[in-house]
Amino acid sequence: MNKGFATTAEAVADILDGATVMIGGFGGSGAPIELIHALIDAGPKNLTVINNNAGNGHVGLAAMIEQGMVARLICSFPKSKDPKAFTDRYLAGEIELELVPQGTLAERIRAGGAGIPAFYTPTAYGTELGENKPTAEFDGKPYVQERWLKADFALVKAELGDPYGNLTYRLAARNFNPLMATAAATTIAQVSRLVPAGGIDPEAVVTPGIFVNRLVEVPNPQQEEVLNQAEARYP
Fold first, then answer.
1. Over 90: is that where the pLDDT of 148 sits?
2. Host H or E run for residue 176
3. What is the pTM of this model?
4. DSSP bridge pairs for 4
5. DSSP line for 190-235
6. At residue 74, does pLDDT exceed 90?
7. Are 65 and 54 in contact (CB under 8 A)?
8. To which H or E segment does residue 136 belong?
9. 235 exposed, middle or buried (CB, 10 Å; 0-12, 13-18, 19+)?
10. Given this model, what pLDDT does residue 146 score?
């Protein structure tokens, strides 16, 4: 099965109002800018977005928030160098925030991909983030129960992809992307280079194709930090 799509627009066309969308990346590293911008062009509203942060500047996720597409954000770092897009809407009561410690966020996503409905962690016990959550004691230490995170769609950025959806990542771009690819009903990957079947050493595959539904080749992908340095805005 060839999972390749001709354009980013085609790849995201069925993401509709009210969907839950995971977006990979750690800041700009591994952020699928072209897929995000294609989603902005498509224009769905009332989205729940799961991301490491709340966007930066006026491109990528920040641009989605500025366009009023995001109703709820689940993230670890709502502040950044230029968080104006999120901050303005949060203070205006136009976007809901669920703040999750970063390690807990990663594990909740991993649990979603692994089919684990809940787990216990000491992180957040005794804090506001742990309020109203089930707790338990193990070996004399208190723990908070956290639930898995799953999504309708995941947008991820990879380095190499083959027609079956097998993926590799470039350096630090291997962050939330592999986890999110496992935790969504539909995973859409932009790859810097699409290679023929057999073009990736099986030992080098990070995300097996069974977790990937769609691929689109995006040579020379844009980098969030470079766009922000140029004071770019999207759309």
1. yes
2. helix 176-182
3. 0.96
4. 215
5. EEEEE--TT-S-GGG-SB-GGG--EEEE-SS---HHHHHHTT----
6. yes
7. yes
8. strand 135-138
9. exposed
10. 98
Token digits of residue 223: 């980098």
Number of structural domains in the chain: 1
The answer to whether the beta carbons of residues 196 and 24 sit under 8 Å apart is no
Query: Residue 227's pLDDT is what?
Result: 96
Residue-number span of the structural domain to which 101 is assigned: 8-193
Look at residue 204 and tell me if it is in a domain. no
183, HSE (Cβ side, Cα atoms, 13 Å): 31
> Is residue 23 within 8 Å of residue 178, measured between CB atoms?
no
Is residue 167 domain-resident? Answer: yes
| 145 part of a folded domain | yes
- 1 pLDDT more than 90: no
Q: Residue 229 corresponds to which amino acid?
A: Q
Sheet strands (E) in 55-132: 70-75, 96-99, 118-121
CA 79 – CA 99 distance, rounded (Å):
11
**Residue 129, Cβ density class (10 Å: 0-12 exposed, 13-18 middle, ≥19 buried):** middle
Q: Which residue has the tokens 């303005």?
A: 88
